[in-house]
TrEMBL record:
Alphabetical UniProt keywords: Amino-acid biosynthesis, Arginine biosynthesis, Cytoplasm, NADP, Oxidoreductase
Catalyzed reaction equations: N-acetyl-L-glutamate 5-semialdehyde + phosphate + NADP(+) = N-acetyl-L-glutamyl 5-phosphate + NADPH + H(+)
The family this protein is said to belong to: Belongs to the NAGSA dehydrogenase family. Type 1 subfamily.
PANTHER family for this protein: N-ACETYL-GAMMA-GLUTAMYL-PHOSPHATE REDUCTASE, CHLOROPLASTIC-RELATED (PTHR32338:SF10), N-ACETYL-GAMMA-GLUTAMYL-PHOSPHATE REDUCTASE, CHLOROPLASTIC-RELATED-RELATED (PTHR32338)
Record's protein name: N-acetyl-gamma-glutamyl-phosphate reductase
Keyword match Cytoplasm: yes
A Pfam family it matches: Semialdhyde_dhC_1
HAMAP family: ArgC_type1
Gene designation: argC
Domain Semialdehyde dehydrogenase NAD-binding: 2-140
PROSITE patterns the UniProt entry points to: ARGC (PS01224)
An MF annotation (GO) of this entry: N-acetyl-gamma-glutamyl-phosphate reductase activity
């Protein structure tokens, strides 16, 4: 199978390259660049010196390259410009950006401040939260790979929403991310001297992942609700932790919560539900496709705290994208993704 990567000079693209070049079903990985076509990848990315000496290709060559699948890891708002022209019977597409995730055009405009892609393609796109959308992903041709924060939050909270174990309107999601979540190009807000030795909150009540999480709560748990969701930048390279708080409905006990999680995730390789009140660290999923989950019932306040963590570049981006590719092509879902987390 031949796979292409758009945006391989970025963090998501680099991780895609690392995973796909070790994937036993992929015979060739073809790399595309919008700005550096014609140069060798290792000229741009020094850590890949002697690993890959193929020249980066122009996006214009892509449609005639006979690929089976292409991963687009370009900035949000960009793929809606070039992906529509690539949609073709024989090419499967996985987009890591936000462009095709939001079904309602006005909602997309309101949160992304951009024009959405053609509605027919948005309708066709499958939201690739694999554990919750496996059957649709299997039939999909265009996958909107989920955002990093929504992946962590949704995996942790959907079972409780679906089983009506919590009051939806009471849900508060407090999320924290490493700096690689902001991509490979430094900006004022991600400059080392400003983020090092500091904790910052950003996009307060305005993060573009709010409508994405609400939409999935509606589609996956059949619950129409508005959430409170905020994001923090942590001086670490990778990792996301979401700490979620909600009011319990009647008769929910620690045992019943554990049973709910087990009923959804016992057979899911990439979701590891830990014992109640286990201390989670982002390092325990570093470099892996795992989403780790724990919870704590507070009988004093009748509230629950649910915690989930992922590596933003793996389960939050490239790892989940490869998981989706495996599902789309009927391969073993864990193929190329079983390596243990890097620790410490
Ligand atoms: N970082 C993360 O943790 C996550 C990121 N995402 C999403 O994945 C996508 C990639 O993120 P990330 O790798 O961090 O971003 P980066 O900024 O690190 O990389 C983006 C890459 O896109 C390419 N690019 C830029 N402009 C264009 C264009 N006009 N057309 C085609 N390609 C272009 C660039 O490569 P070149 O110049 O070589 O073309 C660049 O290296 C984004 O949409 C992001 O929102 C999703 C989940 C998690
Ligand atoms: C730390 C950091 O800046 N993270 C990014 C999330 C990256 C991501 O998943 O973005 P898309 O949904 O647009 O693909 C942010 O908060 O915007």
């Amino acid at each position: 199978m031949r796979a292409g990567i758009i945006g391989v000079t970025g963090y998501g693209g680099m991780e895609l390259f690392r995973l796909l070049s070790a994937h036993t079903e992929i015979t060739e990985v073809v790399l595309y660049s919008s700005s550096k076509a014609g140069i060798e990848l290792s000229e741009e990315i020094q850590h890949l010196y002697h690993v890959h000496d193929q020249k980066l290709r122009s996006l214009k060559q892509l449609s005639s390259d006979g690929l089976d699948i292409v991963f687009s890891s370009a900035p949000s708002g960009v793929s809606s410009e070039f992906l529509p022209s690539l949609v073709d019977e024989n090419l499967k597409i996985i987009d890591l950006a936000g462009d095709f995730r939001i079904k309602d055009a006005d909602t997309y405009r309101a949160w992304y401040k951009k024009e959405p892609p053609p509605q027919s393609l948005v309708n066709q796109a499958v939201y690739g939260l694999t554990e919750w959308k496996r059957e649709e992903v299997q039939k999909g041709k265009l996958i909107a790979n989920p955002g990093c924060y929504p992946t962590a939050a949704l995996i942790g909270i959907l079972p409780l929403l679906k089983e009506k174990a919590i009051h939806p309107s009471s849900l508060v999601i407090d999320a924290k991310s490493g700096i690689s979540g902001a991509g490979a190009t430094p900006s004022k807000g991600t400059h080392f001297s400003q983020v090092n030795d500091s904790l910052g909150i950003y996009k307060i009540n305005q993060h573009q992942h709010i409508p994405e999480i609400e939409q999935s709560i509606q589609f996956c748990a059949d619950v129409d609700t508005k959430i409170t969701f905020n994001t923090h930048l942590v001086p670490m390279t990778r990792g996301i932790m979401t700490t979620m708080y909600a009011e319990l409905t009647d008769s929910v006990t620690p045992r019943s919560v554990k049973e709910i999680f087990e009923s959804y995730y016992d057979s899911e390789y990439f979701v590891r539900v830990h014992r109640e009140k286990a201390n989670l660290f982002t390092k325990q999923v570093y470099g892996s496709n795992f989403c780790d989950v724990t919870f704590a019932v507070d009988e004093r306040t009748n509230r629950i705290t649910v915690i989930s963590c992922i590596d933003n570049l793996l389960k939050g981006a490239a790892g989940q994208a490869v998981q989706n590719m495996n599902v789309m092509f009927g391969m073993e879902e864990t193929k190329g993704l079983k390596s243990s987390p890097m620790f410490p």
